[in-house]
Amino acid sequence: MSWLIPFLASFLFYTREGELTIDIFLFKSIMIVVGSITAAFLLVSYFRNIGADYLREGVILGLTWFGINILLDLLVLIPMSGMSLADYFAQIGLRYVVIPVMCITIGAALKNKK
Fold this sequence. Notes:
With 114 residues, this protein is an all-alpha fold. It is built from 5 helices and no strands.
């Protein structure tokens, strides 16, 4: 879901021909916001069901989500966009580092609360 929701939302900003209908920087900002809201909701939902080992769970979840998002981009987004791997990691892939950071931070906060 952390990959699928922003991916589907992105279609709202493209024509059938694959042309972006808004400024690229506005689009990227919207995608960051959509991704962040999605991640926040998913994190709250996930940690609601966790009763212990919050930091460990945050590390595992963050690395898992990071890996899944990168893999799905490699399988779907890069072929669709025709981007080189270097361009992808510079423009999009690096931003996924936020995923483990958010997950680990929430895990650490919950661990320290108990």
